[in-house]
Predict the structure.
Amino acid sequence: MSKLIISDLLHHNSENFAVRIDHLEADAGKILCLLGPSGCGKSTTLRLAAGLDNPEAGNIHINGEHVAGDGVFIPAEDRHVGLVFQDYALFPHLTVLGNIQFGLRKMKAKARREIAENIMEKLDLTAFSDKYPHMLSGGEQQRVALARALAPNPRIMLLDEPFSGLDVVLRNRVRDETVAILKETGTTALLVTHDPEEAMRMADKIVLMKDGRIEQQGTPAELYSNPKSEFVASFLGDVNRVSAFATPEGLQSEIGLILHENAKDITGDCEILVRPEAIRLRPVNNDAGPTGRVLQSRNLGAYCLVDLELPSGRTIVARAATILQPEDNQICAISLDQRQVFLFPS
Amino acid sequence: MAALEPTQNLVIRKTRSRGILSLMGSGLSMLVALFIAIPILVVFGFVFVPAGDIWAHLASTVLPLYLVNTLILAGGVAVLVLSIGVSTAWLVTMYEFPGRRYFSWALFLPLAMPAYIIAYTYTGMFDFAGPVQTYLRDLFGWSRQDYWFPPVRTIGGAILMLGLVLYPYVYLVSRAAFLEQSICALEVGRTLGRNSWGVFREIALPLARPAIVTGLALALMETLSDFGTVQYFAVDTFTTGIYRTWLGLGEPAAAAQLAAMLMGFVFLLVILERVNRGARKYYHTTGRYQKIQRAPITGYKAALACFACFAPIFFGFLLPTGWLLNESISHPDSFLNTEFPKLALSSITVAASASILALVIAMLLVYGNRLSGQQSNSMVRTICLRIAAMGYAIPGPVLAVGILIPFGFVDNAVDQFARAQLGVSTGLILSGTLFALMFAYIVRFLAVSLNTVEGSVEKITPSMAQAARTMGVTGFRALFKVHVPIISGSLMTAMLLVFVDVMKELPATLIMRPFGFETLAVRAYEMASDERLSEAAGPSIAIVLVGIIPVIILSRAIGRSRPGQKSGEES
């Protein structure tokens, strides 16, 4: 079942930047990530879903209810959605309990208290009940913001870059906690982020946006291994660009023969994209395969990054297991994992 | 070792000279603070001096009246300034409607109108003999007993007059607070089920509360210290009571005790707010600012918003200024006379001297404090700074009492000593001189220049000074190359603000001026008191016109104050 459906949407934001979304669906209980560089329209989309802005054209449905479009507009206060901002936007004049109870209006005091206590226990906030937001750490504030948004049992949870205010160490922990609580409560979530790692770590489905349009949507694995455009491939991970030219056997490049399904359409020169981990290095044997000279290699713990100079002078980066780290100036033979080589029609 | 010596010497000399400088600095600021604290200390000191029968007399006759009138006045003004100031600030910050841009600065204009002047104008316009009632009588053929017209010169009239000119204090601070608020918090409030009214009431208003209370406190201090309006409307408050007890009954001790009670009110206001605030902090928990998206309003709602913003500007500024202009043009003799240039000159002279003096003292205090930031006695200096800034909270008549009592004491002592030892009478050396008047201005308005200078000097971070130092720019050269260019704009502002405040000041000038010394404010008051309202128009319009200058400065400064918003975008 789809919780949120956005269709044929057109909207200009305050900077007169147009956002066009043909179709976007968030499935019940899943986490959908809106991913993209800053200024791609992902926050605008979130605001439209929240009911903070009214779209110029198109329709939005939440839980099957028509909430925007064709003359209908249900404003944010009646939409029953939860919202968590990057800066949490906690109410500094209310305690943690007051913040969490803020959205629980039309019920008896006892019921409000019960719901708030329940959610505080789930998020490990009970001890902070009477504290004011400024007395809490960043991670704690983030949990309060999440609890406040979850308390009224929203139909969908909207999160706008909710982890970017946290330091790196805390961020990963809070991400996992957030995923856990969203899954536990069965909440459907729409998460906006510019960080591909965050999107891949958290999302059930990623919607990658660019210039106000959806570039590609799918599972994290699909987007990473099967990008539909150069932009998608390079946004989700590092890529090397290598030039190649068409031959009867396939595309010939400095790093070997490319057997790509799109290769048959190519005549003349082209450029291929290769993920660093697709480039495998081994000591040179006598065979006449492609080679590269190691300029330098950096050990990053579990793996190492190797800068290679190809015979043409072009440099590429390969990723190798640490135990296979080559020495500087060593000449290595190169072989390719063909599944991680991308070729896009120009 | 020998090679090292000169450097070591230099270091020692430097530290020593810094030490002496800072010692001088701290001594100076303590001295200034002590000097400025004299009137306050005197007033509170008199609480313990038995005033004898007069106190019992006051308590059984006029005191309850003073108390009730003062409370009604303060309460009424509070309601009026809050409702006008907060609502207009919210409208111009959060909504888009025709004329909003103009309203956002024009709402400051009534700040240029001293309360006593608007009181004369409204009396002139709406009294029995004024144009409005005359017109109504002519139109309907009424005579005196035939109709009822709201009387101007009542406590209700005083509340209206003070409210109309004091609401900008609340408008100013609430607008600044609303501009600074996190839009995200308001938007989260929306998703948690609040409509725009709910968001205003439950989030924006509580967050702006400390700022609003500050503005309210300023407005109430002005109300409590108002003398011209209540005296003219014959409403007996503490302020007029102090004046009368002092000059009419010749009872300085009782006057000082009344003054102490009045100041007690002021401090109570401040303390109440602090207690009420408790552990809550009103910092926004964010450093991120989103551009405010003003929601457009149209139709009758837009008309209502326009009216809500236009009415205070019209009644607080346009109408009285128009009437004053009209009166001065139809009675050109009210300023085209031989005395007017003299009045203007003496007003400008005292205002200019006081503003320069206040600026110099403020700079000495601020730089004295900065020089020895890390010294152990910095607590003392901070307290000194705060004391020096306290004068703004002291009503003019109270200040006059607090200055004239010790000055009179010194005069008498010197005179007695001279007569006993030298056989000559020295007369009054301090009281009734320009020196005493200037002292009063400094005590009252030092806070204005102090806050402005402090605010701008804070913009010069220690790292800037250190950066200059690494480039070999230190001492006085640093002052002129780094500090002056950065703060010069603010120094001008500080001077102008004090200048205008002194031009407008009435009660302290009235009580403390040297015999025969008149300013524009004093002349306007005297003419109005003699019911020669049209002759008061000339001096009044001059004061109002000068008063517009700081209004412009303020409205510009606040437009630039929102973080993350460029100056051009919002004004």
User: Anything to note?
Assistant: Residues 147 and 218 of chain A are 29 Å apart (CA to CA). Chain A has eight helices and 21 strands.
